[in-house]
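Problem 12. The chain below contains 208 residues. Write out its predicted structure in token notation.
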Amino acid sequence: MQKVKIGLYYFLILVYVSGTIGMVLRPSFFLPFTPFTLLYTVFVFLIFQPISNFKYILSFVGIALIGFLSEVIGVKTAFVFGNYHYGSNLGFKLLNVPIIISLNWALLVNASILVASKLSKHKLILPLISAIIATGLDVLMEQVAPNLNFWYFMGGFAGLHNYLGWFVICFTTTYFLSEHLIKGDKKIATTIIVLQVLFFGGIYLLKH
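Solution.
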């Protein structure tokens, strides 16, 4: 089983490297695979986590639901993140929000918690660092999201409103749920954060 997990881990790296290049050279071919890539990323992340622990699963699903509801409220009211809407490349939508985005919230928050825990496990410092990591990644994503038909903000760019929304949600969920999510594998969490940075950063640099 361990060999299978390691194989899936290295294949994930290959997917992101090839995907980064493909999004630049032939985006029309690679973009439709985005929801499946996110699903695979979540799958590989979870097989390294203590998924036999009910409280861990409950916390992970809890963040996914909080993230999804925040997005629904955000799209409907512009209250949470500002005025924006989703494009078509993140797959099936429910209430104008791609279903996959809920898993992406849980993935990024959990991965940020695990990376942040390498620096501090203090009740306040941990959620602060975790929120900075997740929000910083969103800053990077916002630079290429419209070009990939992921989502669009009115005016062409995400404002401070969006980043404050991200920070508050990440800080709050980490503060209340990190106790159960902090017990996972830090290596895969670090790898996924790095891959996301390289993916969005690489596309931004190669497109400009």
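Discussion. The radius of gyration is 16 Å. Students who got a different answer should revisit the alignment rule from Section 12.3.
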